[in-house]
Specification:
Elements lengths: L6 E7 L3 H11 L5 E5 L22 H14 L3 E4 L2 E7 L2 E6 L4 E9 L3 E4 L14 E2 L2 H4 L8 E4 L4 H9 L5 E5 L7 H9 L3 E4 L2 E6 L4 E6 L4 E3 L2 E3 L3 E4 L12 E2 L6 E2 L13 E3 L10 H32 L6
Parallel strand pairs: 1-2, 1-6, 2-3, 6-19, 8-15, 9-10, 9-15, 10-11
Antiparallel strand pairs: 4-5, 5-6, 7-16, 12-13, 13-14, 17-18
The structure holds flavin-adenine dinucleotide.
C-alpha cells in the first residue's frame, strides 16, 4: 500500500452525475474532497443524454467531463480508479483502490450507480442504449412512430403502455405459454397494442442498430426498436467491509442501497446518492440528489466540528 495521506473530509466513490454534483457542492464548501471513478457511467452506451435541461443530447462522457472540470476548479481531487475495499479507520474510513493506493476519509458518499444485466437475448448487448432500450424518457422520442417490440417481463405491460405514447405500432412478444392477466391484457387491447406469443431469443442488425428479432422457432421479423427490462444491481461491493449490503428494491427491479431522505445509510459516516439509492433516477435527478447529499454531508461535518469546538472551548482551549 502507498502512504495514506492526506485525510479527506469526503471520499466520493463514483464520478457520474450524482458523484460530481456532490463533489461540486462540497468543493464549493471548501471541503477536502476526492472522487474515485472507474469511468463507466451507466448510460455510456447511449449516443446522447436526453431530458437534461440545456444540454439535451450531449454525449454522456462529454457531460461528465464538463462536470469534472467544474469540480476540479474548486479543488476536488480525482482518481481514475476502482475502489475495491473499505475498512473502518478510527472515526472514518480507509478506501483501497485497484492501483494499490489507499485513501483515508471522514465520510464516504457512495455514488457508484447500478449495473444493468440484460435479459438473455443473443446479440442484444451490441445494441443496448441504441435501439435496444428500456426508458421512454431516455430514448422514446428517437423511436417515435416506429415499429417497437417489447420483450416480455413483469414490466412489459407498463413499458408497452409508456411506449404507446410515442408510437401506435407497439407489440409485446411473449413466450407461447405465457398468459397475461386479463385486466392487463384489456389495457393492451384498449390501446391497440398487439400481443404475439412468439419467443424472442436473439436480435440481429447492422453496425449500430438492431433491425430484426430472431425467434426460437427460427423465424425473423423486422423491428425498429426492442424494449427490454434489465435487472439493476447497486454497486456496493467496495463497501462490504464496513457492512453495507444491497437490498431488494420494492419494485422487483433489482437492488439498491437503503438510505433516508438525506442519503444517510445505516452505516455511520456512509451516505448514498444517485442511482445507487434510486435506480429509476434520470441524470438530472441523480445530479440533484448528489447536490442534496453533498450538502447534507457538509452539514453533518459542520455539526461534528462545532461540537468538537464547543468541547474544546469548555475545556479552556483557544478558539480555533
Ligand atoms: C442505456 C441507458 C441510457 C440512458 N439514457 C439516459 C438519458 O438519455 N437521460 C437520462 O436522464 N438518463 C438516462 N439514463 C439513466 C442514467 O444512466 C442515470 O440516471 C445516471 O447514469 C445515474 O447517475 P449516477 O451518477 O447515479 O450513476 P452513473 O452515471 O452510473 O455513475 C456511476 C459511476 O461510478 C463508477 N463506479 C462504479 N463502481 C465503482 C467503484 N467501485 N469505484 C470507483 N468508481 C465506481 C462508474 O464507473 C461510474 O462512472 C440511461 C440509462 C441507460 C442504462
Amino acid at each position: 500500500m502507498d502512504t495514506m495521506q492526506p485525510i479527506y473530509d469526503v471520499a466520493i466513490i463514483g464520478g457520474g452525475a450524482a458523484g460530481l454534483a456532490a463533489a461540486q457542492a462540497l468543493g464549493r464548501s471548501r471541503r477536502r474532497v476526492v472522487v474515485i471513478d472507474a469511468g463507466e457511467p451507466r448510460n455510456a452506451p447511449a449516443e446522447g443524454v436526453h431530458n437534461f435541461l440545456t444540454r439535451d443530447g450531449t454525449p454522456p462522457r462529454e457531460l461528465l467531463d464538463l462536470g469534472r472540470a467544474e469540480a476540479e476548479a474548486y479543488g476536488v481531487d480525482f482518481r481514475n480508479a476502482l475502489a475495491t475495499a473499505t475498512h473502518r479507520d478510527g472515526q472514518g474510513f480507509t478506501i483501497e483502490l485497484d492501483g494499490g493506493e489507499a485513501l483515508v476519509a471522514r465520510r464516504i458518499i457512495l455514488a457508484t450507480g447500478v449495473s444493468d444485466t440484460l435479459p438473455e437475448v443473443a446479440g442484444l448487448e451490441a445494441y443496448w442504449g441504441k435501439n435496444a432500450l428500456h426508458c421512454p424518457y431516455c430514448h422514446g422520442w428517437e423511436v417515435r412512430d416506429r415499429d417497437i417490440a417489447v420483450l416480455d417481463s413483469q414490466f412489459a405491460v407498463h413499458q408497452a403502455l409508456m411506449f404507446r405514447q410515442l408510437s401506435d405500432r407497439v407489440t409485446v412478444f411473449t413466450t407461447p405459454d405465457r398468459e397475461i392477466e386479463p385486466a392487463e391484457r384489456e389495457k393492451l387491447d384498449a390501446r391497440g397494442i398487439a400481443v404475439v406469443q412468439r419467443e424472442v431469443t436473439g436480435v440481429r442488425g447492422n453496425d449500430t442498430h438492431l433491425t430484426h428479432l430472431v425467434f426460437r422457432d427460427g423465424g425473423e421479423l423486422a423491428a425498429d426498436a426492442l424494449v427490454v427490462m434489465p435487472h439493476f444491481a447497486a454497486g456496493t461491493a467496495a463497501l462490504a467491509g464496513v457492512g453495507l449490503a444491497a437490498a431488494a428494491h420494492p419494485s422487483g427491479i433489482g437492488t439498491y442501497v437503503v438510505a433516508d431522505e438525506t442519503g444517510k445509510t445505516e452505516i455511520p459516516g456512509l451516505w448514498a446518492a444517485g442511482n445507487t439509492r434510486d435506480p429509476m433516477a434520470q441524470v438530472m435527478m441523480a445530479a440533484a440528489d448528489g447536490l442534496r447529499v453533498g450538502a447534507m454531508v457538509n452539514a453533518d461535518l459542520i455539526q461534528e466540528e462545532t461540537e468538537e469546538a464547543v468541547a474544546s472551548l469548555r475545556a479552556g482551549a483557544p478558539v480555533a
